[in-house]
Design a protein that fits this description.
There is one protein chain. By secondary structure, this protein is α/β, with parallel strands linked by helices. Helices cover 33% and strands 24% of the residues. It has 4 helices and 6 strands. The protein has helices at 55-60, 74-77, 80-86, 97-118; strands at 4-7, 13-20, 29-34, 37-41, 66-68, 93-94. Strands 1-2-3-4-5-6 form a 6-stranded mixed sheet, with no helix packed on it. The N and C termini lie far apart (37 Å).
Length: 119
């Protein structure tokens, strides 16, 4: 994965690494590292829910200090339940109240849709 690193002064280092979302129509997931703090910027997935896409997230999930969710759609928060349940993501998750409420609705709707497809 390509990453970008910047040093603001001799003591602070900021690094951004895309974990998912470098290809078109892919979920968005970026790792922001500020010194020793690991912040996950979004935790998206696409509607194919291919677990192989989450390999990079799987490697860093236990080290994440917090998650910031910017949008309520699947491309920005779709992998969040899987990351918490299966990848060892255990940290505070932050978003605005509208993103939180709409995200719940989108994720619920997605689960219902996928369940109906399988039946």
């Amino acid at each position: 994965n390509p990453s970008s690193s910047t040093s603001l002064d001799n003591m602070t280092t900021i690094k951004v690494t895309p974990l998912l979302g470098v290809n078109e129509n892919e979920g968005v997931c970026n790792l922001l590292q500020i010194d020793n703090c690991n912040i996950l910027l979004d935790c998206g997935w696409d509607d194919n829910f291919n677990v192989n896409q989450l390999e990079a997230l799987k490697e860093v999930a236990p080290t994440i200090d917090c998650v910031l969710i910017s949008h309520s759609d699947i491309l920005h928060c779709g992998a969040l339940p899987y990351a918490v349940g299966r990848l060892g993501l255990k940290c505070p998750i932050f978003s605005t109240i509208p993103v939180y409420k709409m995200g719940q609705m989108f994720l619920y709707d997605t689960v219902i849709s996928k369940t109906m497809e399988e039946d």
